């Protein structure tokens, strides 16, 4: 009898559900994105996100179940994101799931959102542990070594904000929503699109943390550099804030390059640290890149230069699996069900955790190793 898992995701601005069998076959899925609403409000307002999850979760789960032709009685377990994320949003998914498992008397599997992102690639191909993971999104930025489905070593993380958040804020400051090419896409996507027609050499932004020989990230200082440049250009062009600048493509290209450069440098150091400590296998060592920002092709190409130079395979799930969805939660549930890890009874008390670190933090050891990087030309050819 093949076991079946229902996965539910509500940690931020996507309401997702999927039914999957234990071989990784998606039997039915549904996703409700709130992106258009948050684009209009200029960012995610937790109370609005919560209300949209509340309005849509029942329908989304029902659609996933109907598309899979599976009844609740046939499910082996329900897996739901309970950490980390926006408290109000996590609460909707958890409350719905706990009612569901109680009603149908099914086991419950609480899921760590970052672990789910990290392991999605194993649904698509047999990536063996250990492997290096880079998670870059609107809410997260971290490097970790995955040693098992619930065994991670944290090598570095953002000290302030995530790259997707920084790009979204710059896109808002540039009023890219007024650009005819960008009116319906996220800020990060708008930066990537306009950067294709920009000259990154027209502006120089200092890469963050150049004197820090660790694997942590910082994007707030870069965002401020870009904002100061925008102010300067507005004064030069004699335009009010909120007006599209003539050099918007060049600013987008320069910012995107600096973000990619910073991510690539930290990842390069993480690879060298893992190799020096014997943490990666000598045969087919792998870097898995996931999270919404992982769909940025310029960032992927920059990382490919690093993995080619260090002898790693670079693996990225397809773009639709890089952003938040129910499929990755169902898959993480499947992996836990197979190994019998973290499976609770429908009677157990479960709480959500808005802040939840990934794995064991060894960032101090990485910093102490103080690895200086060999020169590596991070030049992307068009």
From TrEMBL:
Co-factor note (free text): Binds 1 divalent metal cation per subunit.
Q: What is the E.C. number?
A: 2.3.1.234
Enumerate the cofactors the protein uses.
a divalent metal cation
Q: Write the record's keywords in alphabetical order, separated by commas.
A: Acyltransferase, Metal-binding, Mitochondrion, Transferase, Transit peptide, tRNA processing
Pfam families reported for this sequence: TsaD (PF00814)
Which catalytic reaction applies to this protein? L-threonylcarbamoyladenylate + adenosine(37) in tRNA = N(6)-L-threonylcarbamoyladenosine(37) in tRNA + AMP + H(+)
Renumbered to this chain, the signal peptide range is none
Residues in Gcp-like domain copies = 26-331
Family membership noted in the UniProt record: Belongs to the KAE1 / TsaD family.
Q: What does this protein do?
A: Required for the formation of a threonylcarbamoyl group on adenosine at position 37 (t(6)A37) in mitochondrial tRNAs that read codons beginning with adenine. Probably involved in the transfer of the threonylcarbamoyl moiety of threonylcarbamoyl-AMP (TC-AMP) to the N6 group of A37. Involved in mitochondrial genome maintenance.
Against HAMAP family, the record matches this protein to: TsaD
- Protein name per the record: N(6)-L-threonylcarbamoyladenine synthase
């Amino acid at each position: 009898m093949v076991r079946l898992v229902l996965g539910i995701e509500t940690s931020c601005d996507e309401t997702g559900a999927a039914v999957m069998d234990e071989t990784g076959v998606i039997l039915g899925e549904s996703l409700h994105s709130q992106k258009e609403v948050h684009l209009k409000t200029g960012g995610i307002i937790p109370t609005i996100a919560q209300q949209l999850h509340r309005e849509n979760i029942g329908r989304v789960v029902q659609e996933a179940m109907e598309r899979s032709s599976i009844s609740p009685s046939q499910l082996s377990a329900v897996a739901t994101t309970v950490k980390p994320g926006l408290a109000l949003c996590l609460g909707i998914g958890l409350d719905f799931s706990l009612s569901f498992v109680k009603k149908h008397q099914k086991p419950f599997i609480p899921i760590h959102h970052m672990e789910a992102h990290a392991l999605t690639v194993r649904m698509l191909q047999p990536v063996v542990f250990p492997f290096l993971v880079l998670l870059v999104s609107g809410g997260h930025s971290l490097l970790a070594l995955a040693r098992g489905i619930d065994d991670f070593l944290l090598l570095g993380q953002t000290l302030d904000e995530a790259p997707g958040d920084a790009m979204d804020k710059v896109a808002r400051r540039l009023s890219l929503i007024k650009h005819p090419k960008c009116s319906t896409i996220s800020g990060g996507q708008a930066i990537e699109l306009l950067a294709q027609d920009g000259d990154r050499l027209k502006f120089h932004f200092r890469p963050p943390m150049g004197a820090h020989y660790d694997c942590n990230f910082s994007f707030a200082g870069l965002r401020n550099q870009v904002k100061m440049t925008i102010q300067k250009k507005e004064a030069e062009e004699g335009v009010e804030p909120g007006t599209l600048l003539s050099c918007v493509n060049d600013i987008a290209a320069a910012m995107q390059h600096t973000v990619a450069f910073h991510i690539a440098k930290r990842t390069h150091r993480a690879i060298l640290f893992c190799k020096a400590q014997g943490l990666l296998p000598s045969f087919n060592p792998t870097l898995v890149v996931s999270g919404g920002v992982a769909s940025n092709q310029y960032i992927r190409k920059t990382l490919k230069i690093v993995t080619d130079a260090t002898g790693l395979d670079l693996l990225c799930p397809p773009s639709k699996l890089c952003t938040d969805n129910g499929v990755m939660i169902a898959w993480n549930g499947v992996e836990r069900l197979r190994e019998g890890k973290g499976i609770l009874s429908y009677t157990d008390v479960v709480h959500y955790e808005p802040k939840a670190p990934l794995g064991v933090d060894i960032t101090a050891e990485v910093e102490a190793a103080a690895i200086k990087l060999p020169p590596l030309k991070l030049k992307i050819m068009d």
